[in-house]
């Protein structure tokens, strides 16, 4: 059913002090600048210089006095004004073109009073052209007038500006603390300054040198970096810019180090700029609305049905609930920010309309809580909220009905029966006590004191979480805040049934913030190294069951999502790959039937290998460690085979020796595999002691020799006493003696010889007797022996014939 856009009247301005003057300025001056305080209680109206009195009006909603100020003709009026959200009181900052700054406060006494006055440009050598007041700071762009710069040509004058910053904070009950000046950018063009709750945008102006009119900068104080972006070129570069560390940039040097930004392009033809929570939006003269995000990327949001005719026409942009609101003259258009589709177009009763941001999180009063997140529209008629109206046929269920509906879905997922579990059955069946107890609490059957005692810890955690979210929205310590929020969310998800949306959310957190997600897993699983390269865990079995479990019915997770165990393996592979094998070994020691460890389905080491990629593309070291640590015979043999191919003999031998004595068959297979290599070549000779230790104790010498004979290389020629130069030396009895001793020690004691070859191992103590020598005279009885006599040694034999 189609939604309907609504304008809900929040106030007819009668509850603001100075309501008559407020309506007069809103209706009479189209160029008036309107700002709202972060708490929504103050409205600031500033008229351009030369306007009739009053030039400044601050109206207060509820109790409090308004502030009207006027400056006589010939006396300069403020360049800009800001309302600051100080805790004890509201503060007003006025900034003049000369650099004069005045800070006014209310709540200290009756009305408004001046708290401090100072100069941003002491000495009068500069002129302020733009100013902004991001959170806790005052930033301005000034044009340097002193020295010889005023006599330089146009290119040099174009770089005669600089951007400076000073901290601005309350001090005591009625004081302010304005810090020292720090220069962010030297020698830069004239920039306009716009601020959101997180970022400061430096945008080109009408006086910017044409060659730089397509460049804008985004400074994120919480991150300490600046992004230089050229939206028309699709380019952006990020650099460090943290005043706390003394960072500063010469703008010309900055551009020279960023290739491609100075390519000739047309200027940005901007009619209206508008900072939003999503980034910086601008409307061009063709009616196209574009968005530059804080990281520098840009995209087109949509196109209005009518374009602004000229700069004189009024326009305002704002966003709420994924919707872009644009007021152009007396027309309000609502566009979907995702698709750019026009959702609704309304004709307003006036063309003098201003869009105001909603109050900052945590600063709303009770009335504002009902309209949280909406965009507000201000005119002389009143203050309105722009929002969407739900269809009248939509009836919201009561809290009690929602409890039983959600409980029925939860129990149905865990139930094995085929019948559908209904909310009515839960109400009547006493078996399901949890939803009935919660419904009783919501109906008020439990006393407030007992309920508070039961929920005290949960309320404390919830309050801390809400404060953390408000801190993130405000932009304070953004990186640490996101890390803490991710840790909270991962810990919460690991306590739930990880299915559907919960699993998708867990995948998203691991992809966006892997370091924070893994930190949460460390605490939930209570993982600690034991000093020997292994991990230990004290987490209860229920937690491991959720981590190691697979999807229901063995189905693949939808949309490419990974189960929890695969997510952890993928995260470890990215962050600390050396801890992946110990983690998989620890996981294999946990679990029960159907957990993924020791149950049906793929073993855990194969699930971890699947995360590393296809076979042949995995990191070799990680694959070997996972195979060796799996404890599965086929996996260990596969790993030893890979080590043999890589000729990592020592590690292959240590892998076999690391197996427990309860795996004699696997040790025997590894020994036979390495013995075959020992028979083929001599590259294992240096590791012969380890090979002897791996030798099975029940292997007989005859079996050893038969195994060796099987793998000895074939002899194509009679053996020579010495190998040919460069040839592989043959296996000798000397090398074999150590192995034969290892096998023979198991059966050699006293008694008969157990093997035909065992006498090779034992030294008899005395040499065998020398065979009798054959004399030279006896050779005549055997004439055939003369052929064996060496040449020259048979000359002493006399011929008797």
UniProtKB/TrEMBL annotation:
Residue span(s) of domain BLOC-2 complex member HPS6 C-terminal: 401-773
Domain BLOC-2 complex member HPS6 N-terminal: 1-386
InterPro entries in the cross-refs: BLOC-2_complex_Hps6_subunit, HPS6_C, HPS6_N
Keywords of this entry: Cytoplasm, Endoplasmic reticulum, Endosome, Membrane, Microsome
Source superkingdom: Eukaryota
Subcellular location: Microsome membrane
Pfam families: HPS6 (PF15702), HPS6_C (PF20468)
Chain positions covered by the region annotation Disordered: 764-793
Record carries keyword Nuclease: no
Keyword Endoplasmic reticulum recorded: yes
Record's function text: May regulate the synthesis and function of lysosomes and of highly specialized organelles, such as melanosomes and platelet dense granules.
PANTHER family registered for this protein in UniProt: BLOC-2 COMPLEX MEMBER HPS6 (PTHR14696:SF2), HERMANSKY-PUDLAK SYNDROME 6 PROTEIN (PTHR14696)
Subunit field text: Component of the biogenesis of lysosome-related organelles complex-2 (or BLOC2) composed of HPS3, HPS5 and HPS6. Interacts with HPS5 and HPS3. Interacts with biogenesis of lysosome-related organelles complex-1 (BLOC1). Interacts with AP-3 complex.
Record's protein name: Hermansky-Pudlak syndrome 6 protein homolog
Lineage, top ranks: Eukaryota, Metazoa, Chordata, Craniata, Vertebrata
């Amino acid at each position: 059913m189609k939604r309907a856009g609504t304008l809900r009247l929040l106030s007819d301005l009668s509850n603001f002090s100075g309501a008559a003057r407020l309506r007069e300025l809103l209706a009479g001056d189209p160029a008036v600048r309107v700002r709202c305080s972060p708490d929504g209680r103050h409205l600031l109206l500033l008229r351009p210089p030369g306007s009739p009195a009053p030039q400044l009006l601050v109206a207060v909603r509820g109790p409090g006095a308004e502030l009207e100020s006027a400056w006589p003709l010939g006396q300069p009026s403020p360049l800009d004004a800001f309302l600051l959200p100080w805790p004890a009181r509201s503060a007003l900052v006025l900034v003049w073109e000369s650099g004069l700054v005045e800070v006014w406060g209310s709540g200290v006494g009756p009305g408004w009073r001046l708290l401090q006055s100072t100069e941003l440009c002491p000495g009068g050598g500069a002129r302020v052209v733009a100013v902004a007041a991001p959170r806790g700071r005052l930033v301005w762009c000034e044009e340097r007038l002193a020295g010889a710069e005023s006599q330089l040509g146009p290119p040099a004058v174009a770089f005669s500006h600089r951007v400076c910053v000073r901290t601005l904070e309350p001090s005591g009950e009625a004081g302010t603390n304005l810090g020292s000046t720090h220069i962010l950018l030297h020698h830069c063009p004239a920039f306009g300054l716009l601020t959101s709750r997180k970022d400061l945008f430096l945008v080109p102006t009408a006086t910017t040198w044409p060659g730089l009119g397509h460049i804008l900068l985004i400074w994120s104080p919480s991150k300490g970096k600046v992004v230089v972006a050229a939206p028309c070129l699709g380019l952006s570069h990020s650099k460090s810019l943290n005043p706390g560390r003394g960072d500063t940039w010469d703008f010309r040097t900055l551009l020279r180090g960023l290739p491609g930004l100075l390519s000739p392009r047309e200027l940005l033809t901007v009619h209206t700029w508008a900072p939003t929570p999503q980034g910086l939006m601008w409307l061009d003269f063709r009616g196209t609305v574009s968005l530059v995000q804080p990281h520098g990327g840009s995209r087109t949001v949509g196109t209005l049905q009518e374009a602004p005719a000229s700069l004189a026409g009024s326009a305002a942009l704002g966003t709420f609930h994924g919707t872009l609101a644009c007021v152009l003259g007396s027309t309000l258009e609502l566009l979907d920010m995702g698709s750019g589709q026009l959702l609704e177009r309304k004709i307003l009763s006036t063309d003098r309309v201003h869009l105001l941001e909603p109050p900052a999180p945590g600063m709303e009063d009770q009335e504002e809580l009902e309209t949280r997140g909406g965009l507000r529209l201000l005119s002389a008629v009143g203050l309105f909220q722009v929002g969407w109206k739900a269809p009248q046929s939509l009836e919201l269920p009561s809290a009690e009905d929602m409890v039983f509906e959600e409980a029925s879905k939860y129990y149905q997922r865990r139930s094995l029966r085929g019948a559908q579990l209904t909310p009515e059955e839960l109400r009547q069946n006493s078996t399901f006590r949890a939803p009935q107890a919660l419904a009783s609490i919501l109906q008020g059957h439990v006393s407030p004191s007992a309920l508070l005692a039961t929920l005290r810890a949960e309320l404390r955690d919830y309050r801390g979480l809400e404060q953390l979210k408000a801190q993130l929205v405000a932009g304070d310590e953004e990186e640490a805040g996101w890390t803490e929020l991710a840790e909270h969310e991962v810990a919460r998800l690991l306590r739930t049934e990880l299915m559907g949306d919960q699993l998708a959310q867990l995948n998203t957190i691991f992809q966006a913030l892997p370091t924070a997600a893994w930190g949460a897993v460390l605490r939930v699983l209570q993982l600690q190294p034991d000093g020997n390269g292994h991990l230990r865990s004290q987490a209860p079995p229920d937690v491991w069951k959720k981590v190691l479990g697979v999807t229901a019915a063995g189905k693949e997770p939808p949309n490419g999502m990974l189960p929890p165990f695969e997510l952890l393996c993928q995260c470890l592979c990215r962050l600390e790959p050396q801890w992946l094998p110990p983690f998989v070994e620890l996981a294999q020691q946990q679990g029960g039937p159907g957990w993924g460890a020791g149950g049906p389905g793929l073993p855990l080491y194969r699930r971890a290998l699947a995360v590393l990629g296809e076979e042949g593309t995995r990191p070799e070291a990680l694959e070997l460690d996972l195979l060796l640590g799996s404890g599965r015979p086929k996996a260990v043999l596969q790993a030893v085979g890979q080590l043999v191919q890589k000729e990592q003999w020592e590690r292959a031998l240590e892998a076999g020796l690391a197996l427990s004595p309860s795996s004699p068959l696997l040790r025997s297979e590894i020994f036979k595999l390495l013995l075959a290599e020992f028979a083929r070549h001599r590259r294992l000779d240096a590791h012969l002691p380890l090979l002897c230790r791996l030798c099975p104790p029940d292997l007989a010498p005859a079996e050893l020799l038969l195994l060796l004979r099987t793998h000895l290389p074939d002899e194509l020629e009679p053996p020579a006493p010495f190998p040919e130069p460069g040839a592989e030396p043959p296996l000798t009895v000397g090398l074999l003696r150590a192995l034969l001793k290892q096998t023979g020690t198991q059966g050699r004691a006293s008694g008969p010889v157990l093997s035909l070859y065992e006498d090779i191992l034992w030294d008899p103590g005395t040499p065998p007797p020398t065979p009798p020598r054959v004399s030279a005279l006896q050779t005549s009885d055997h004439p055939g022996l003369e052929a064996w006599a060496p040449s020259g040694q048979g000359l002493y034999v006399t011929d008797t014939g």
